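Translate sequence into structure tokens.
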Amino acid sequence: MTMKTLASSLAVALSLSIAATFAQAQPASVDATAPAATEAVQLQQIRNATVKITYGDTTFLVDPMLAKKGTYPGFEGTYRSNLRNPLVDLPMSEQEVLAGIDAVIVTHTHLDHWDDAAQELLPKDIPLFVQNLADALMIRGQGFTNVRVLSRAEFNGVTLSQVGGQHGTDEMYAVAELATALGEAMGVVFQSPGYDTLYLVGDTIWRDEVDMALEDYGPQIVLINAGYAMMNGFDGSIIMGKEDVLRATQAAPDATIVATHMDAINHMALTREELREYVQEQGIADRVEIPEDGATLNF
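Result follows.
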């Protein structure tokens, strides 16, 4: 998908009727005096940034990219754009990925987080949380009927809170066309009484919003998109990398850091193997989980 295609898709979404109605999620509060966690949170790495997060009987599918290996061309203007995406197949069937899910969270609508295969395979009436009106309009235009713009909401006893970020450096966002292509992307905090709090950072570099979320929510689990995706002609990355994983262990000293969004898309410059070597060198291997595709973690 080219930058122009991404920008065009956003423009089409915004041109739709703003008067369209949505099944909005209602805000819910979380008791600050809730007891310490006694139940397990389950996180399953699927592929790329696609994960399943389970609180009790409720399972969320995050950022589904479900196409077969090599379905799409590499992202134009990015590192290794000659490679086709995804770089690897799913570790299980699409039906197994979708089994048991109660809702979907799409942090943003880039192809590697919300692809054609996911749009075809998911039930059109499944509850689906997005970051803003533009993404909601786009996904409703794809036939989904239960799209909810997330700010702070309760779903089946789990409170979801949107956290901001920036999908690239200030230098990148100073280029108008690139800023449009990068767009916005959200993080999400998951909370439920008796369970650990999980902060899904999303596609962002480290910014004040991340520090604030760590301070305000005190998560016990921090899920970082750590593949260090690179644009040609720019220093830095459009998401986090290994140094951010180290910084997270320092900023959230009581949390387990889980690294995802690696080894599946052409512009990812950090591999799991490299990150494992780095966390060993830094003496933080006991604080960081780097799951392979298909692996399940219990907290």
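Note: The first strand starts at residue 41 and ends at 47.
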